[in-house]
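Thread: Newbie trying to understand structure tokens

Hi all, I'm a second-year student working on a class project, and my supervisor (Dr. K.) asked me to get a predicted structure for one chain before our next meeting. I've only ever worked with sequences, so writing a 3D structure as a token string is new to me. If someone could post the tokens and maybe explain what I'm looking at, I'd be very grateful. Here's the chain:
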Amino acid sequence: MSAYYDRRLSPPMMSLLSGPLAWLLADVRGEWGETWGAHLQTRLSDGSPERIQLYAGRESPLYVSQAKGGFVVDVGDGKSRPPRPGFFKLAMSSGQLAEYGPELKAWLAEAMASLNPSFNEKPEARAQVGMVRRYGLNYRAGEPLLVLDTEAQVGFRGGRNGSGTQEKDALKLELEKKGIGWHQKLDVLGLLPSGRVALVEIKGSPRDLVKAVEQVLCYQSLFLRVQASDGLSARELGSWISQKRKAGLLPRTRTPIPETGPPVPVVALPDPEADGWADRWRATIAPLMEQHAGALAELQFLRLSPEGEILERAPA
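---
Reply by user tm_fold:
Sure, no problem. This is what the structure looks like when written as tokens:
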């Protein structure tokens, strides 16, 4: 099988965060990052270069990737970006990237100024941004979730015979027969205190519970396929956590010890009505729980604050 998911980068890439990109990591961890809901994620996909990607909420202003001859800076996803400086898209050494630091920082400030200041205030975005920072960069030992990645996407390795595409298409058909739609990016991938992988789908209100469960059903199938391909092992996850901790992307505190086991589906959303919340959620998704009883046997609920803080947990 060819499904895979791996975010561990090479030492030269990760060393950028303690070298020419140290200023960016400091900004993300500080007041600037708090204001913009910023976070840095490692990215690696079949046929694409390794990259360190900056997110400001759900926007991605820029990324730095590995290239032949050095490193490349380019514009991330989104709209309304100012003109790129001449050094963008050029392969640079670590030293050259450091020299362009002030110019890159100035360009980033201009890019952020062009964003709508309310872009993080939609309930779903606000909850996701808050959760990613609160339980990632600012995770504290013993908390109910360690956030490892956001907008997590499973890849399918190709080949001359197109085996990756064939497997992806076959899985889509398999899910379709079960009444499950295809979705690309999981909101949050994390670890529970038990060490089990958590697949977290976040929504803005209880009105979207059914949609959240439908999406997490797809992601559960995708990540089970990764595990069947010998991916997401406890050793891989432990190595990734160690790498992120050393780079400053996770705090140097005690984190869950990864365990190999089926991923746990989780739906999380703000609900201001604390009384009887779990029973109301169960009633809302009861038809789906009956239809997909096996797949949802371990489904978990997280009731969030509007800022993404976990207030209460319950089994579905």
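A couple of things are worth pointing out once you decode it. The mean pLDDT is 92. The CA atoms of residues 179 and 290 lie 13 Å apart. Feel free to ask follow-ups in this thread.
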